[in-house]
Write a structure and sequence with these properties.
The protein is of the alpha+beta class. It has five helices and 13 strands. The strands form three sheets. The protein has a five-stranded mixed β-sheet with strand order 3-2-13-8-9. Strands 4, 7, 10, 11 and 12 form a five-stranded antiparallel β-sheet that branches. The two termini are 19 Å apart. It is 20% helix and 33% strand.
Amino acid sequence: METRERLPVFPVPPAAAEQVAQPTLQIDGLVAQPRTLTPADLAALARADLAEPFACEEGWSVPGLRWQGVRLSAVLALAAPLPNARYVRVRSGEYTVPVPLDQAAHGLLADWLNGEPLRLEHGAPWRLVLSGAQCFMGVKWVTHLELTAEPGSNTGEQIARARLR
């Protein structure tokens, strides 16, 4: 597998650039208390670190990454998930990946990378990082967390599979 020194930079969608100017994070679906969170709301949560390389199905990887942020489970707890919630659909615009709640318990909404604030090009204001997950699960520019009973469509996987063809 090829190793790269740092994460590649891909074009930033215009909506992501707008989101970083006034970031909010919507939580809804199967929750008792739908919420719209701000960076200050997330700053009140305990911080966590995750040492996780970034590996892509295309055959390259970036070792030695240290992500910092808040646990996805702590963020979801703010909205009080209902007992029938089994998945969180993590969204950025139309890009959506479903994450089983048991896997989400180990996820991080990262806002720092290697001791520095996460750059827009790498997913600021918040990027989903899941230990051991496929690269398309690392949702950049997270804007919405929807709790659901079923996974629903996975546009991230659809896009990744189309690129590998």
